[in-house]
Amino acid sequence: MNRKLLLGSLTLWLGLAGTWFGAAPVNAQSQALLAIPAGLAGFPGDTLVVPVFVSTAQAISQAQVVVEFDAKDFTFIDATAGPDAPGFFVLQTLVHPSIPITTSGATENVLVQFAGSGAQTFSGNDRNVLFLHFKVTGATGGASPFAFAADSIATVLVTNQSVLLDGTDLQFINGSGSIANLATLSIPGGFSAPKAETLQVPVRLSSAKAIGVAQMVFDYDGNDLQFLEAKPGPDAADFSILVETNLPFAPATIGTNKNLLITLFSGGAGLLGNDKTILTLNFLAAGEIGGNSPIAFDRGVNRTALSTVDLVDLTGADLAFRDGDATILPPLVTLSGKLFYRSSNSPVSGAEVAITGQSTIAKSDAAGNYVFKGIPQGSYILRPLKTGDVRGAIQGSDALMILRATAFIDTLTGDQEISADVTQDGSTTTSDVLAVLRYLAAQTSGTAQAGNWIFQPATAAMLVQSDTTRNFQAFLLGDVNGSWASASSGLAKAAELPLASVRLGEWRFDEKNAYLSLFAGKEGEVFTLIASFDLPSNVGSALRFVPATAKILAATHFDANNVWRLAMVTADGIAPEEKIGELALPLSVATGSPVWQFKRTEVNDRVMQTTGVENRETSTAIPAEFVLQPNYPNPFNASTWISFGIPAQAGETTVRLEIFTADGRRVRVLAQGKYAPGTHRVLWDGRDEFGAVTPTGVYFYRVQAGKFTASRKLVMVK
To answer: pLDDT grade, residue 141 (50/70/90)?
Structure first.
């Protein structure tokens, strides 16, 4: 077809599709860009799909493109509309339209006309508007062009306004296609092994044909690598193997001086697919440390070749190759050491030691030893880490030692100073004391790093050139006396502190609060106290500790399990029978716990067995005769205390204490049982025997103690 015939065909096509030439052609520069990707590839006999992309701001309703290609490599099949041109269809395709071919390497061209079926248009960037389908017919290797014809009217775009874009209105990006190699043999690069160790090199095959025989010649440097053996890979497990090391020709690869021939063959199924591991080459790493040693295929046509199961030989351009290399690393060494507790040399087990450049983490065993086996020589950084395993080693005596050091009463050793600095600010201060007390009171914040582990050194940078040992000292922050390493597990200082106890005293009241006194026992001075109570939530959340002297440091905490804890310390000691402080409660909740029982008590680092204190309290003062005292407070709101006394001569006496209404109806039996001589206090919470709150009014309480009977009046006001 000559140019006149081409224009006539185009005019006819435009007439069939509608009148497009009502407006003059637009000559503005580069109103559209047409592109074909480069690097397209297909195997012989396959169909190669070549996409055409358009970038334009115009709304394109119809188009014609002429694409040039190499007919010896590709044969045009057909064309279809692309995904970014919905509603478009191909009107006509014409191979060899008598338009001059201007692209170097191209021998043929094809004209494709396509348009929207109605009002459809396309616009925007990188719109895939057309697919050209070619059959791959040529030989493997090389590149063949896919290019737009440079003729000014060969490629034309028409807008929905009937504006014709051609010539300088258009820019082109041409592409290319190639015929893929039927098979690829590859050796991955970057393999390494320590000197004197075995280097395992996999050989992989990608093939579009089923391979029944693989003959491969490998070149390598015998100064660096000593060949040991070759085995079929996991994807060629059923193949037989032949190995020949004395070849009659020299290696063809620069940097090599030895070669070997490996042949794999099978009487059954062939090797097909991508990245199949068909062979493993084993070498001894024997050369100098560092640097890359080549492992390459000999590409000679008669040296490396593949045969398909139907006896078609693949050689030369049928094959592609990717060579590899190997690095000889320094010899493997062992890095080990021991983790021990401070200067006691007691082993620290269960710690983790991380090392840079290695995926494994070493753990210290029961003897505190850790080991990294088989690591290459080189520079490393070690970092030990340990959590938990406190063993109850942080006790009141630790807080006492820090406190006495801050008061310049005692001097801490180097190990003790490190363990005492729980705030990790480089000094030992009252903040460290308070942090330890909060830790002992089970507070969840404000404890700094009490209970955490640190190591000296924290990290160790090492140049490892042979088997090496590196030890670390471990410190449990807060364990000042070093009891973590002792057999007594946290009670190392008990022998240095006096035997002591604590007791609960009497209640006292003011207008707003009730106070339960806490005293040192008769045995000895109290320096540290760790105590806990099981309390109802409304009591524990309101309870606070009021120290008897400013020299007492304390911390308290009430947790979600309804346990209230107290941790206190004093450097001067609290003498026997002296007051430690008071447990203060608002009167509104003072009746919330009928029994005050220590859950656990540690005094001077000794666990103390204690008795509970009910809502009745006994004074050490023993009256001379039976007595019923006025209740306090009176009038009262919510609760009041009733006291009665039993003389010494009466001995243990059966007592019954009852509450009555003003008209004599019994409300509640408040106490019944045997009581020892002394003054006793019983708390009435204003409730009857069924637990209901009694109304405002006048009530009477009566006590019967042996033959003694007495009554008094009390008033509830709400």
So the answer is: low
Residue 433 lies in a domain: yes
Higher local confidence (pLDDT), 112 or 404: 112
How many other C-beta atoms lie within 10 A of the C-beta of residue 55?
A: 15
Q: What is the mean pLDDT of residues 612-635?
A: 69
CA distance 470 to 458: 12
* Final residue before a domain boundary, out of 587, 614, 641: 614
* Same-domain pairing of 677 and 556: no
Q: What are phi and psi of 676, to 5 degrees?
A: -80, 165
* Cβ–Cβ < 8 Å for 263, 202: no
Sign for the pseudo-dihedral over CA of 543, 547, 548, 550? negative
Residue 10 clears pLDDT 50, i.e. is over it: no
Q: Please list the residues that pair with 583 across neighbouring strands.
A: 516, 545
Are the beta carbons of 202 and 233 closer than 8 angstroms?
yes
Domain end, chosen from 281, 307, 329, is at 329
Q: Rounded CA gap, 58 and 586, in Å? A: 83
Six token digits for residue 262: 């490996």
Q: Are residues 634 and 576 in the same domain?
A: no
Which of 220, 201, 212, 176 is closest to 42 using CA atoms?
Answer: 176
**Residue whose C-alpha is closest to residue 552's, from 569, 577, 576, 574:** 569
Query: Measured between alpha carbons, how far is residue 281 from residues 254, 459, 609 in Å?
Result: 20, 41, 75
The C-alpha atoms of residue 462 and residue 579 are separated, in whole angstroms, by 58
- CA 283 to chain CA centroid, Å, is 39
Domain shared by 425 and 509, yes or no: no
Our count of domains for the chain comes to 5
3-state DSSP percent of the chain in helix, strand and coil, to 5: 10, 50, 40
- Residue among 265, 295, 302, 298 at smallest CA distance from 281: 295
| Closest C-alpha to 567, from 613, 609, 528, 625 | 528
Q: In whole angstroms, what is the distance from residue 592 CA to residue 541 CA?
A: 11
> Is-above-0.70 flag for pTM?
no
Q: Which of 30-34, 77-81, 593-597 has the lowest mean pLDDT?
A: 593-597
The CATH number of whichever domain residue 668 belongs to comes to: 2.60.40.1930
Range of the domain at 418: 334-441+448-482
CATH number at residue 576: 2.60.40.680
* Alpha carbons 587 and 511: distance in angstroms, whole number: 8
Look at residue 294 and tell me if it is in a domain: yes
C-alpha angle with apex 273: 272 to 274, nearest 5 degrees?
140
Same domain, 150 and 26: yes
The verdict on 263 and 341 lying in the same domain is no
Instruction: Give residue 542's Cα distance to chain centre.
Output: 40
Instruction: Label residue 107 exposed, middle or buried (CB < 10 Å: 0-12, 13-18, 19+).
Output: middle
pLDDT at 621: 60
Rounded distance between C-alpha atoms, residue 306 and residue 208, angstroms: 12
Which helix (H) or strand (E) segment is 477 a member of? none
Q: Tell whether the model's pLDDT for residue 29 goes beyond 70.
A: no
**Alpha carbon of 516 to those of 382, 507, 530, 563, 578: distances in Å?**
55, 5, 17, 18, 14
**Displacement of CA 184 from its chain's centroid (Å):** 40
* Whether residue 374 is found in the same domain as residue 477: yes
* Residue at 676: amino acid letter: A
Of residues 22, 325, 61, the one with CA closest to residue 201? 325
User: pLDDT band for position 55 (50/70/90)?
Assistant: very high
pLDDT of 24 reads 32
Domain check: are 583 and 675 in the same one? no
